[in-house]
Structure formats: structure tokens, C-alpha cells
Design a protein that fits this description.
- The protein is mainly beta and 221 residues long.
- 11% of the residues lie in helices and 60% in strands.
- The strands form two sheets. It has an eight-stranded antiparallel beta barrel with strand order 1-2-3-4-5-6-7-10. Strands 8-9 form a two-stranded antiparallel ribbon.
- It contains one helix and ten strands; from the N terminus they run H-E-E-E-E-E-E-E-E-E-E.
Length: 221
């Protein structure tokens, strides 16, 4: 029992000492509130606006006579390209319209399917106007294109004379575009197919369906 009384007396004394010390030192002033540091949000990349660009293309311009003679060669080769258009962005979806010009002089040569003859094919200066729809992932854009295209073709042969025609039809494409460092410059790649259909060259029905690969550097405004 004496031990319990001693413990109680010691606790009471300690409480009194702490209280006296607190009163002697005065009231504790409240500390000012310091708000937590929050990092500024990073602005999302905006694809809306006009753009122009240029680059290189490689195309295979078909000249399929379906076995008829003379059999013309496909016209293949590299070219220079220019693109201009405008984008509208809504959420992750990007919509646009553009014009693409391909300054090229592709050619091909064969024996016309007849020994001793020579056939040369030429395809020049392709142009297209198309719509574009894409899905944006920040500064990356996956897209598809659909529109109308045209180019000029001609053939020369050693035994059948020369002829020319303008091919036109639908163009579809898929592609990918990536902003460089999140800025206004982008790199872009397109794979395109042209449904040009049939024209007659030297009396032979010739299908002009074609394909093209395009690599461009773009500037957005």
C-alpha cells in the first residue's frame, strides 16, 4: 500500500513540474500552414492546326495487261513529295483534310512479252486530295486516309507505237506520325494504295492499280 501511495505522489509531482515549466515558457505559437508542393500538370499535345511538309516516296505504278500483248512493265522508282493540310482534335480523335503532291518520273522497261521488242512505261506527277482520321496518344498519332488521286502514264514500244492516258481513282492509306521532342516538327510515314482501274494504251486494256510508301518531315502551325 505504501508503494502505491509513493507512486501516486511521484506522478502528481511530475505533472506539476511539467505544467509549471510550460507556463513559465509561455504559450506555444501556432506554426504557419505550408501547402504541399504539387508538380505543375504537363499540357497534352494538341494536333489541331495547319501543317505542311516534304519528303521522299517510292512507288510501284502497275501496268497490268492481264496477259494481253504488248505486256507493259510496271513503272517504279523514287520521287519527292509535298503535303499540306489541317487537323481538328476532339479528345483522342483527330480529323483532317489534306493535299499530297508526288513529283516523280517513275519508269520501267521490258520486252513487251515478245522477243525482240522493247516496251517502256512512264508514270509522272501524282496528286491526291483526301480526308484523314486518327487516334492520338499524346505526341504520337496513328491515322488512316481516304480520298481521290490522279497521275499521268505513257508507254513507248518498238513495234506498237506510243500512247498515254491519265489514271484516276480512290486512294486509301495508313500511317504514323510522331512529334519531335513534343514540338511543332513531326516525322510521318504513309503506306498508300491507289485503285486506278483500267485505261487503254495502244488498244490494250491496262490496269493501273498502284502502291506507294511515303516518308515526310512535317511542320505544324
Amino acid at each position: 500500500m505504501k508503494t502505491l501511495y509513493a507512486t501516486a505522489i511521484a506522478a502528481t509531482a511530475a505533472t506539476s513540474i511539467f505544467a509549471t515549466t510550460a507556463l513559465a515558457s509561455g504559450p506555444v505559437e501556432p506554426q504557419p500552414y505550408v501547402p504541399p508542393v504539387v508538380a505543375a500538370p504537363v499540357a497534352a499535345y494538341d494536333w489541331t492546326g495547319a501543317y505542311i511538309g516534304g519528303g521522299l516516296t517510292y512507288g510501284r505504278m502497275g501496268m497490268d495487261t492481264d496477259g494481253a500483248l504488248p505486256s507493259y512493265p510496271d513503272a517504279t522508282g523514287f520521287g519527292f513529295s509535298a503535303i499540306g493540310g489541317y487537323n481538328w482534335q476532339s479528345g483522342n480523335m483527330v480529323y483532317g483534310a489534306e493535299v499530297a503532291l508526288d513529283f516523280s518520273e517513275r519508269d520501267g522497261s521490258n520486252d513487251c512479252g515478245i522477243v525482240g521488242n522493247t516496251c517502256d512505261s512512264f508514270a509522272n506527277h501524282q496528286a491526291s486530295i483526301r480526308g484523314r482520321v486518327g487516334y492520338a496518344m499524346g505526341s504520337s498519332l496513328m491515322f488512316a486516309t481516304l480520298g481521290y488521286a490522279t497521275d499521268s502514264r505513257s508507254v513507248t514500244t518498238s513495234g506498237f507505237g506510243s500512247d498515254g492516258a491519265r489514271y484516276d481513282g480512290a486512294v486509301i492509306g495508313v500511317g504514323y506520325e510522331q512529334a519531335i521532342g513534343g514540338g511543332d516538327w513531326t516525322v510521318r510515314g504513309d503506306l498508300e494504295y491507289y485503285f486506278y482501274g483500267d485505261e487503254t494504251l495502244n488498244g490494250v486494256t491496262t490496269n493501273g492499280d498502284s502502291s506507294l510508301v511515303r516518308l515526310s518531315v512535317m511542320r505544324r502551325f
